[in-house]
From TrEMBL:
CDD domains xrefs: CdiI_Ct-like
Originating organism: Mesorhizobium hawassense
UniProt protein name: HEAT repeat domain-containing protein
Length: 122
């Protein structure tokens, strides 16, 4: 019998700092993924960026991948990102062997929503 993974869409929840940060530190992959997305959408962009940069180096591929997606969300939603930190992250990701479309998507979001629009590029 062929088993297929079932994908379930969940909207990004509003930020409840206490619950979100507890989920982030829970060690449970699904909870961490939801927390990273919530933080990247709703929290202060600098704090969100720090969280995403930290979790983009996580040992779990799914957590690492969603943190990379989160960096793209920060660029798109908040219009700001620290380019030097992104370049350092890219070097780390190459070392970790992370060559996925999410990296290209992140860079595209930074180019479109930060660099080309002359927004807050630090």
């Amino acid at each position: 019998m062929n088993k297929r993974a079932t994908l379930v869409y969940e909207g990004v929840k509003e930020l409840d700092r206490s619950r979100t940060y507890k989920s982030l530190l829970s060690g449970e992959t699904g909870e961490q993924i939801r927390a990273i997305l919530t933080i990247s959408w709703h929290d202060d962009w600098r704090f969100a960026q720090d969280v995403c940069f930290k979790y983009a180096r996580h040992t779990d591929y799914s957590v690492r991948n969603i943190a990379i997606v989160g960096i793209g969300h920060i660029a798109r939603i908040h219009g700001a990102i620290e380019i030097g930190s992104v370049l350092a992250l890219l070097a780390d990701l190459r070392h970790l062997g992370h060559h996925h479309g999410s990296v290209e998507d992140m860079l595209s979001d930074i180019m479109v929503y930060v660099a080309r629009q002359g927004r807050r590029e630090i």
